[in-house]
Write a structure and sequence with these properties.
single chain; alpha/beta; Cytidine Deaminase, domain 2
Length: 286
């Protein structure tokens, strides 16, 4: 499915001149994720890579960790009164023997394009359910100078953003700076789930030798997703939240914020960047 953009009429005002024209906007539609036929979550997303999004969501929730854990993923027909397929409902069927979590109203969460996963906002939950503890993975080193050029590489690869200006992006890079994968979505957490889901389906988890870069802030949900996928380094062009920093410190995740030009703030895991801890005290850098 590829309803990534839509056209809408817009009235433009430029230096006092008024005109009308069609404008290209990023599409935003709900996606209901079902697990073995039962509703699990609804997220507002940009259509495309829906199966990967659903798979990545389940990795983030600790439900699956291997490609063989998923029997199949399908779009559900009959989602409307007339029985047509909206391609906005997917059903994930787990493989025989894979435990099915207890799906209650508490877990049946609604996630907007800005809030991310809301059902497990707990440091303890992430620490105890992570498939691949980051602290136990082989060490990864990333030079700060290389990290500094990754936002430009991400931006250069954002094809849909150039047409709409309304999408977040998430990208996986190698420690040497090679762009491995990039996904765009109206929700940054969806973009990350699409990356993780694609890796799950191709048997590439854990992503223990990658750097995750997001085009915005680093929330707890994004740090959680990185940890659950075994990603050792998360970098964001904007600020992290306090809970994201706490999670990074507890799990061994390297967390970088305000990655702009040659400057950055390293909130946890500075050893992977080869930096000395205990820099000169003072006001927080911005």
């Amino acid at each position: 499915m590829g309803r990534v953009t839509e056209r809408r009429r817009v009235v433009r005002v430029r230096d006092g001149a008024v005109s009308t024209r069609p404008d290209t906007l990023v599409a935003e539609e709900p996606l209901e994720i079902r697990l073995n036929g039962r509703p699990l979550a609804i997220t507002m997303r940009t259509p495309g890579d829906d199966f990967a999004l659903a798979a990545g969501f389940l990795v983030s929730e600790g439900v699956v960790g291997r490609a063989t854990d998923v029997a199949n993923i399908v779009y559900c027909a009959g989602a409307t009164e007339d029985g047509s397929n909206t391609y906005n409902v997917v059903d994930v069927r787990l493989a025989p023997g894979v435990p099915v979590p207890d799906i209650t109203l508490e877990r049946n969460v609604y996630t907007t394009s800005s809030c991310g996963l809301c059902g497990k906002a707990s440091l303890d939950a992430v620490r105890t359910t992570a498939w691949w503890p980051i602290a136990d993975t082989p060490p990864v080193r990333v030079a700060p100078e290389l990290l500094a050029i990754l936002p430009d590489r991400l931006r250069a690869a954002q094809r849909v953003f150039d047409r709409t200006g309304g999408l977040h992006a998430a990208a996986l890079f190698s420690p040497e700076g090679e762009l491995l994968d990039l996904r765009e979505d109206v929700g940054r957490h969806n973009a990350v789930d699409k990356l993780i889901g694609r890796a799950l389906r191709s048997g590439e988890l854990p992503l223990s030798r990658t750097v995750l870069l997001v085009s915005g802030r680093a929330s707890f949900e994004l740090a959680q997703k990185a940890v659950m996928a075994g990603i050792p380094v998360l970098a964001a062009v904007s600020a992290p939240s306090s809970l994201a920093v706490d999670l990074a410190a507890e799990t061994g995740l390297t967390l970088v914020g305000f990655l702009r030009g040659g400057s950055m703030n390293v909130y946890a895991g500075e050893r992977r960047l080869g930096l000395e801890a205990g820099a000169t005290a003072g006001a927080p850098a911005r």
